[in-house]
Amino acid sequence: MKHSAIFTAALVAASIAGSTVSAQDALTGVKSLNDRIDDITTAANDDLESGNDANRFGFSAANPGWKGSLAASASATSGNTKNRDVSIAGRMTYGSGLWSHSVGFAGEFGSTDGVNTKEKLFGTYEANRYFSDQVYAFGTGRYTQDKFGTLEKDAFIGFGPGLRVLNSADTTWRVQAGPGMRYTKTQAGVETKEASAILSSRAWFKINDVISINNHTDVLSSKGSTVATNDLGMNYKMTDTLSTHFSYRTEYNSKPADGFKKTDDTIGVSLVLGF
Predict the structure, then answer these.
(1) Coil vs helix vs strand at 267
(2) Quick check: helix, strand or coil at residue 214?
(3) 65: Cβ contacts below 8 Å, ≥ 6 apart
């Protein structure tokens, strides 16, 4: 009985201590900083993975059947201002024989003092049909609705063939292109429907077991404008636990909004250390 009482008391003390620490973390700002650390870590790992391009080698359909994930978050503040924020996101993949499908969706909602200030909805769909290690067909679509953005609605759908021009253990290059249709609607209610074309290139080159280089290019062209991005990156694996990704990203818009330049350049460095 004595040992049982001691054990129970220890559990209660640990529970109280844990609650106290949690409260202290929130009060001192430690919790918010830890959340930010998680965000930065996730972004850095995403940079490394995008440099690797998981689809660069041969037939790569999704695992058979359904697989997916779902995340949601909510926050509220009161006092000087009343803020409400809710977000939800999910992704599902489905593989069946030579076909693979991927569906993603997200929503962000917010208000300040009872007035809606954020209302965004996103949706994406991608499909691939593999004919061989070199030839495949793709279909892609996206939809964005932003009640408080420049464009209330922005949607695109396209499809076409894909080809792996180079496909070896050290050098891969795949290109895909096809026609599409883009639809936009401004907050003023002006709607635009334009035939468009999409061209994408993915190149990856392994210099040695430590260094690899990638170059990703996407061009979306329509009568209204041409938007292009080029992302040049280098992955440097210094040790089994330390990796670095350097990137130089260029974004081009042939008809930017008034007061904006046609080109934006971004230099980035991501460092991931595991131990």
Answers:
(1) strand
(2) strand
(3) 94, 95
Per-residue pLDDT in tens (0 to 9) along the chain, 275 residues:
444 444 444 434 444 444 444 445 555 556 556 666 666 666 666 665 666 665 665 565 556 788 888 878 788 888 778 888 888 888 888 888 888 888 988 898 998 888 888 899 989 898 889 898 889 999 988 888 988 877 888 888 999 999 989 888 888 898 999 999 988 888 888 898 989 999 999 898 988 888 889 898 989 888 878 889 898 988 887 776 777 878 888 989 887 777 778 888 888 877 766 65
- The answer to whether residue 46 is domain-embedded is no
CB 265 within 8 A of CB 247: no
Helices 30-52 and 2-28, interaxial angle, to 10°? 80
Indicate the pTM of the whole model: 0.66
* Containing structural domain, residue 90: 58-121
- Domain boundary, last residue among 81, 96, 121: 121
